[in-house]
Amino acid sequence: MTTSAVKSRKFSILFDWFDQGKDGQLTQDDLLAMAGLFAMVADNDPASTAAMRDAFEQWWQLLLKHGDTDGDGQVSRAEFIAAMEANVTSPEHFSGAILAIADATMQALDTDGDGVLSRDEYVGMAGRLGVSPVNSAAGFEKLDRDGDGVISHEEYRQAISEFYLSADLDAPGNWLLGPLDRSV
User: Fold this and answer.
1) Residues 86-107 pLDDT 10s
2) Is 162 helix (H, G, I), strand (E, B) or coil?
3) Considering only CA atoms, which of 79, 22, 29, 17 is closest in space to residue 56?
4) Which residues, in sequence order, are CB contacts of 61 under 8 Å at separation 6+?
5) pLDDT (tens digit, 9 = 90+) per residue, 44-54?
6) How would you class 92 by CB atoms within 10 Å of its CB: exposed for 0-12, middle for 13-18, buried for 19 or more?
7) Percentage, residues of the chain above pLDDT 70
8) Which of 81, 101, 127, 141 is the most exposed place for a label (fewest CB within 10 A)?
């Protein structure tokens, strides 16, 4: 698989996950629905919920600005992939649009403040976000880089960065939503 094909595949899987209306177009409602799913993960943590909603709104604004090439207020799969590759994952947008969600999620799930996610916490979170337990359990094994039985905040951020930025087909971060050869 070429560099471009690896990223396109990941962003296509992400598109399918975000397309909550299952109509082949992303809208603001789709991203608001995703923010709602992530807010449920935050389990009534107002600061994390607000951070997630703000980050998804920023993401939507970037998609509209850079991806909605026909001005219809929706983003097609092709527009999404192009916008993700060229703009959303660029250094000036990546932290505010993507890592902010990861950080808020980690903060919400790490209720004891130890800076790590256990296997059960990770698989439970992924399940609430619509990722199958089989895929999230396999993903946990890949993301726990040091094999200590937990995913640290740094390991989680590294996985997020790899999923969005790496063209390496074998990068552990590619397992965030399960294997690349299957959908969420």
Assistant:
1) 888 888 888 888 888 888 888 8
2) helix
3) 29
4) none
5) 678 888 888 88
6) exposed
7) 96
8) 141
Domain count, the chain: 1
Q: Is residue 28 part of a domain?
A: yes
Structure tokens given for 93: 């947008």
Q: 74: domain CATH number?
A: 1.10.238.10
Is residue 30 in a domain?
yes
Cα(94)–Cα(71) distance, integer angstroms: 23
Tokens in use for 151? 């995913």
Q: Is residue 184 part of a domain?
A: no
CA dist 79 and 93 (Å) reads: 17
Residues of the chain with pLDDT under 50: 183-184
Q: Is the pTM of this model over 0.70?
A: yes
Q: Copy the structure tokens of residue 45.
A: 């943590």
Owner of token pair 């995703």? 34
109, part of any domain: yes
Supply the range of the domain harboring residue 95.
Answer: 3-175
For residue 167, give the 3-state DSSP assignment: coil
